[in-house]
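Q: Got a minute? One more chain.
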Amino acid sequence: MKELSEQATLEQAKSGFNFFLAIPNSELYRLVVDGCRHKDEQGFVGYEARESGSVRCFLNAILEKKDFVNSKEPVTIELFKEIHRVCSPGGRFFPGQFKETYPGTSHGFGIYQLSIEGLKDLCDFADRNKEFKVSYYDNNFVIHKLNLYGINMELSLCRRPARSKPNEEQEFKITYAVSLTKENTSTLAESTINKLNNTLAQANNDNTILEAIVECIYELEHAHMFHDANLRSNMILANLLLMQHGFPPVSYFDPNYLDGVSKAEFFNIMKEGMLKTLDIIEHPNEAHFNFKSSSLSADAQKTYADIIKPITESKEKLNYSVPNEINQQIQLVRERIQKLQQNPEPKWIINDFKFHLENSDIFSEYVSLNVAKHAQRNSFFNNNNNNNIPSYQNSSVNNYPQQSTKDTTQDKDEITSEPEKIESCEESEEMFYRRLLKEVLDSNETSADKIKTLSEVGTPSGVDWTILDLVSEEGASEEIIEGLREYSTANLSL
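A: Always. Here it is, folded:
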């Protein structure tokens, strides 16, 4: 491929931002909300219920950084922190602060997202960053030593609550995750961003450019620099970099695959997401990810118009109109994307490795849900206009994770839609806390240690019970109850 001249890259940057501006207002949410959620959650509706204000903040972060896109400026730590600040609605998530400045959090992701090559990349990443620690959440599970495909590393299989329905705040389901945590982030962030800038400064072909962007986003995501809003910050940075180099932003089916696939595999996902954005620009009235925006209710459309009003006003201030040459730009950039290398498809870890869990029945049903999710994903992309591009999203469902716990007899026809029995995977917040408290009470710890452990739990906000209530109802001894009462009086947290 011919070297890219400075003038050519500046022109590409301008056309890159044009792709963002050319996305019809009715379709902008698709850059923010996972495509796999569009049908079940009515486009943006479910996401906005869970993450109020995030759609507007995500889009606003892109608009605010248009000068970066239209320049040859390198990425800086300050830019990355500013992206996080802008995309954290209402000042939540310690905006713009790396998590070394406050108590650390762990980074977990679902087993269904983990591929064989993704595990290799994860282990390599952890091996190069010795300051990472293995995190551990649940005393029901021991730390499993994985010795798989020549990889030796201790990872915890952790269990934590996650909201299963956006409109039912107290509904929870159990998720499983391989999790790493890190205390000091600045050094890694600086070295990752410096490496990106150095590679891009010397890049003379599109494969090198995209590989550099993927590697940077991969490392920032796995380092999990912030308390929350990490993935959206990383996706915004990726889109800014893509547009700076003349590519369109990405519309993902599920960006969470970044957590568990390899860099080479995510390279493919990013390619396909760019092609999907071009498809949305060209055919805004058609169904994308199996959902038409026109099917939103009148109330939802009004709510959405209010959400993106600042975005539409910003477009008006830019005096933007779709340029006459946009179709030509789309054709040219599609050819660029199609010429990018195609990496091997993922081989999913669930197909080849059985996790022996004490709670395998629940795990079995959770995996069933995600097998169905992969089957849906396959059907979404079967109708993609770019079927001539080799893609694991166009592959047979057999390439996706299959159930690998006790129940291995499930018929293929049963996983073409979400299993009805998934409700059994859900538990209320109260049930979740009762189970955890009972585990502590039934343990072999001394009463003093039990009091210390229970006192650190704390009652969550917005519930009509307390930790002390639950402990009493679960049959705790008078010694433990009295010890917790004394702690509660002093600390007002139980």
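A: The chain has a mean pLDDT of 71.
Q: Perfect, thanks.
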